[in-house]
Amino acid sequence: MNREMILEASAQIIRQKGYHAASMQDIADAVNLQKASLYHHFSSKQDILLALLDQALDLLIERVSVVTSGDLPADEKLCQAMRVYLGCLEEHAALASVLLLEHRSLNPEYHDRHIPRRDRFERLWRDLIQEGMDSGVFHAVDPAMTARALLGVMNWTITWYRPEGRYSSGQISDNFASLFLDGLRGSG
Questions:
Q1: Is the dihedral of CA 53, 75, 144, 175 positive or negative?
Q2: What pTM was computed for the model?
Q3: CA 48 distance to own-chain centroid
Q4: Cβ neighbours of 139 (radius 10 Å)
Q5: How far apart are CA 165 and CA 64, in angstroms?
Q6: In the 3-class helix/strand/coil scheme, how is the chain assigned residue by residue?
Q7: Of 76, 106, 138, 139, which one has the fewest beta carbons inside 10 Å?
Q8: What domains can be seen in the chain, in order of their start residue?
Q9: Which tens digits make up the pLDDT trace of 61-113?
Q10: What Cα–Cα distance (Å) separates residue 112 from each residue in 15, 42, 176?
Q11: Dihedral of CA 143/149/152/128: which sign?
Q12: Rounded Cα–Cα distance for residues 146 and 156 (Å)
C-alpha cells in the first residue's frame, strides 16, 4: 500500500460521504489497512485533505500552464485552457469534488498552507486575461474578478455535469468560452 493508493481511495470516500462524515477507519477499510497503519502514511484526516488539495492543484497548474505558456492569441489560449480545465474535472471527478467542495474543511494552519497553491492556480487565469487585455484581444476588465467569475462558472459544473448527459465536457467548455468571449448580446 502506498500514499497514492490511499489518496485515491480517500478522494472517493470524501466525495461520497463528505469530509466530516468520512473517517480514518473508512479510509483504512477501503485500502485494507489497519487504522494504526494508515497513520504511518498520514498523521491525520486533515493531512489527507491537504494532500488531496495539493495533488489536485498541482495537476491543474501543470496542465493549464502548458496552454497558457503557449504561443497563441489570448482568446485561443482561454478556449484551450477552459477545455483542459473541464477535462481535468471530468477525468479526476473525485479529486475535483474534494478540491472544490471540501477546502473549507481545512483547519486554519492547513488552510494557510493551501492558499498559496490556490492563488498560483488563479494567477494563471488572471495573467491570461491580462495578456488578452494587453494585446487588445480583450477589452478592459478587472482580471481578478473576471478570473473568479470564469472559474466559478466552470467549478459549478461538478454539481450537475454527467458524462452520459447531453453535452461532453468539451462542448460545455466551448459553450462557456463563447459566452465569456462573445457575451449574450447580439451584434445588432
A1: negative
A2: 0.93
A3: 17
A4: 7
A5: 25
A6: CCHHHHHHHHHHHHHHHCCCCCCHHHHHHHCCCCHHHHHHHCCCHHHHHHHHHHHHHHHHHHHHHHHHCCCCCHHHHHHHHHHHHHHHHHHCHHHHHHHHHHHHHCCHHHHHHHHHHHHHHHHHHHHHHHHHHHCCCCCCCCHHHHHHHHHHHHHHHHHCCCCCCCCCHHHHHHHHHHHHHHCCCCCC
A7: 139
A8: 44-182 (1.10.357.10)
A9: 999 999 999 999 999 999 999 999 999 999 999 999 999 999 999 999 999 99
A10: 23, 19, 31
A11: negative
A12: 16
Amino acid, single-letter form, for residue 69: S
CA neighbours within 13 Å on the CB side: how many for 143?
Answer: 15
125 Cβ partners below 8 Å, 6+ apart? 64, 81, 147, 150, 151
Q: How far apart are CA 164 and CA 60, in angstroms?
A: 23
Residue type, 97: S
pLDDT averaged over every residue in the chain:
95
Confidence of residue 187 (pLDDT cuts 50, 70, 90): low
CB atoms within 10 A of CB 12: 18
Place of cell 485552457: 81
Reading the block at residue 150, the C-alpha cell is 470564469
Is 133 exposed, middle or buried, given 0-12, 13-18 or 19+ CB atoms closer than 10 A? middle
Rounded Cα–Cα distance for residues 105 and 29 (Å): 22
